[in-house]
Amino acid sequence: MSTQPLLLNLTQAAEFLGLKPTQLYQLTRQRSLVRQAIPLPHIRLGKRLAFRRESLERWVAKLETAVTQ
């Protein structure tokens, strides 16, 4: 049984990605071309944001693929 939580909060997800929480929050709100083409996977729980670690890993992989094409 895994001891890791199913969802990461904004601070945990930012740390996981090596970003500041404010930078990660902005990525959930921006309407840039990257945001539209490859949206940052997140869940809104009321006013809070949550992130699945696996979804963030897939998102980074998609970004890498988009850059190399």
Write a structural description.
The protein is an alpha+beta fold. It has one domain. The chain contains four helices and three strands. The protein has helices at 10-17, 21-29, 33-37, 53-68, and strands at residues 8-9, 43-45, 48-51. A three-stranded antiparallel sheet has the order 1-3-2. Helix 1 crosses helix 2. The termini are far apart.
Q: Would you identify the regions where 5 or more consecutive residues have pLDDT less than 50?
A: none
**Proportion in β-strands:** 5-15%
- Please state the average pLDDT score: 87
The outline comes out as globular
Q: Helix count, per DSSP?
A: 4
Number of discrete domains: 1
N to C succession of SSEs: EHHHEEH
Question: Brief description of this entry?
Answer:
The protein has one domain (8-68).
Blueprint (SSEs and pairs):
Elements: E1 8-9, H1 10-17, H2 21-29, H3 33-37, E2 43-45, E3 48-51, H4 53-68
Antiparallel strand pairs: 1-3, 2-3
Based on the model shown, name its key terms:
55% helix, alpha+beta, 4 helices, three-stranded antiparallel beta sheet, 69 residues, single chain
